[in-house]
Amino acid sequence: MNSISSDVIRGYNDTMILYLLMQRPSYGYEISKQIKQLTQEKYIIKETTLYSAFTRMEKNGYIESFSSDEEGSGKRRTYYRITESGKNFYKEKCREWILTKEVVEHFILKEEPYGNN
Asked: What is the pTM of this model?
């Protein structure tokens, strides 16, 4: 298996998006592209998942959106930036991940017990 199931990673989409927004404000397509690149294409976030996350996080006050004109094209693009509340939520999710990883590690075999089937 070369990719991660969206069910497995669903609870951490917000964490990934917030991590990227801590670097700089960005827009949907760019964030999606960065997630794909950073995970070496092991996880490709669906557009509907991404925009649902934006809506949820904006409603919760973790991010805010703003419009900006694309240089030379006249098109308006919606950008997102992380808020102070979003930074706190991100830190909380990082602590949660460390604990989750510790718990799940107890149930992960380090070697394949039945060969490579």
From this structure: 0.86
Predicted confidence at residue 65, as pLDDT, reads 98
Residue 69 lies in domain: 6-105
Cross-strand bridge partners of residue 82: 63
Q: What is the pLDDT of residues 27-83, one digit of tens each?
A: 999 999 999 999 999 999 999 999 999 999 999 999 999 998 766 667 889 999 999
Spatial neighbors of 16 by CB under 8 A, at least 6 apart, are 35, 45
Give dist(CA 2, CA 16) in Å, integer: 19
* Within a domain: 20: yes
CATH number of the domain residue 24 falls in: 1.10.10.10
Task: Give me the phi and psi of 35, to 5 degrees please.
Answer: -65, -45
13-23 vs 84-105: helix crossing angle, rounded to 10: 130
Q: Is residue 53 part of a domain?
A: yes
> Edge-to-edge strands of the sheet including 63-69?
26-27, 76-82, 63-69
